[in-house]
């Protein structure tokens, strides 16, 4: 078995221990002063106001973030609306082109052999009069 050397307390270790004790005692004193100071009304009011200010600042940050998200969503929806309006306009143009009278007449003539009747082919049907009341 090996021998264990035990150090004798030296002057520097005693000074270090004293400094530690003084530091701890100083920290305890400061903490007591802080707690005693917080019992004062004006300090308590100040702490409450700081807490409210912090909560308000966090609320502003959250609100600004939500506002940016909603603005991005709005921009996306406006782009989609514009795309749908462009498509609708193109469809209306296509519909008007497909339903033009000249095109309909041409398709009727080509597909079904229809033609505009001549004067001799037009027959006028007389309007029937209602039976006279008895």
List the helices and strands and how they pair.
Elements: H1 11-38, H2 41-98, H3 101-112
Q: Radius of gyration over alpha carbons?
A: 49 Å
Query: What characteristic shape results from the CA principal axes?
Result: rod-shaped
* Terminal CA distance: 147 Å
Q: Give the number of domains.
A: 1
The number of helical runs is 3
Counted beta strands: 0
Based on helices, strands and strand pairing, what is the structural class?
Answer: mainly alpha
Low-pLDDT sequence parts? none
The biggest beta sheet, please?
none
| Beta-strand percent range | under 5%
Order of helices and strands: HHH
Mean pLDDT level: 87
Helix percentage:
over 70%
Structure description:
- The protein is an all-alpha fold.
- The protein has one domain.
- It has 3 helices and no strands.
- It has helices spanning 11-38, 41-98, 101-112.
- The model has no long low-confidence stretch (mean pLDDT 87).
Summarize the structure.
The protein has about 130 residues and is an all-alpha fold. Helices cover about 75% and strands about 0% of the residues. The model has no long low-confidence stretch (mean pLDDT about 85).
């Amino acid at each position: 078995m090996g021998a264990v050397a035990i150090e004798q307390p030296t002057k520097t270790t005693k000074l270090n221990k004293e400094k530690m004790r003084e530091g701890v005692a100083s920290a305890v004193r400061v903490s007591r002063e802080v707690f005693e100071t917080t019992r004062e009304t004006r300090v308590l009011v100040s702490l409450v106001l700081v807490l409210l200010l912090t909560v308000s600042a966090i609320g502003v940050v959250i609100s600004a973030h939500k506002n940016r998200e909603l603005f991005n969503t709005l921009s996306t929806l406006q782009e989609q609306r514009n795309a749908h309006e462009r498509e609708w306009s193109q469809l209306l143009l296509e519909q008007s082109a497909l339903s033009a009278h000249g095109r309909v007449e041409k398709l009727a003539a080509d597909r079904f052999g229809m033609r505009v009747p001549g004067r001799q082919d037009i027959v006028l049907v007389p309007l029937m009069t209602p039976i006279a009341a008895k």
